[in-house]
Amino acid sequence: MQLPAAQNEVQASYDVFRTGPPPFIGSTATKDELLKHVSTAKLLHLSCHHLFDARAPFLSFLKLAGKSGADFLYMFEVAELKLAAELVSLSACNSAHSHIESGDEQYGIVRAFLAAGARSVISTLWSVEDSSASVFFTDLYRRVLRDGLAQALKMAQLRLLADPRYELPNFWAPYVLSGHWNHPLSFSDENDASH
To answer: What is the pLDDT of residue 191?
Structure first.
């Protein structure tokens, strides 16, 4: 259950933007800390575990610090948030999974973040490997202000593909972008990013 590269991943995102509070890592990455900052954050980077439940999609969750179910961030809770986030990055396994109900209603954690007000969400189609995720997001964030979201995503994937350690598609191909793909990101205000 450990994610040893997650600390490097969230620290790298903070080092690029240098806005908002320092990253919440390990035991400080709690639901309470997230909820204190989530409504004003322009960037949310969540490097954690995700569990999707197709039978009860509203009970799908992101596992934050803590051992009880009350410490998890559930899909139904995300949908009730009021977000100002330009980008939510879900560096968690299978975070793009969703369930389609009759009438084409889609239920999943990505849809919940978009419904809560996030402009864009980066998620994963399958399980991601910890160290490659760190390389991917570090490169993505270095490019995103200059190149925009879609181009930064493409270039970060190509960088993984060019690395002999990560050239197989299971490393570089799971990342997908939902929402506004062509808008420029701006994280210039203080207290506008959370990790």
So the answer is: 44
Residue 170 CB partners (closer than 8 Å, separation 6+): 126, 129
Q: How far is CA 45 from CA 55, 91, 99, in A?
A: 27, 7, 23
Query: Which position has the higher pLDDT, 177 or 182?
Result: 177
Q: Tokens 């322009």 — which residue?
A: 42
3-state SS, one letter per residue, for the chain: CCCCCHHHHHHHHHHHHCCCCCCCCHHHCCHHHHHHHCCCCCEEEEECEEECCCCCHHHCEEECCCCCHHHCEEHHHHHCCCCCCCEEEEECCCCCCCEEECCCEEECHHHHHHHCCCCEEEEECCCCCHHHHHHHHHHHHHHHHHHCHHHHHHHHHHHHHHCCCCCCHHHHCCEEEEECCCCCCCCCCCCCEEC
Query: Could you report the per-residue pLDDT of 42-88, keeping only the tens digit for each?
Result: 999 999 999 999 899 999 999 999 989 999 999 999 999 999 999 99
| Residue of 168, 178, 13 lying closest to 110 (CA atoms) | 178
Q: What is the pTM of this model?
A: 0.90
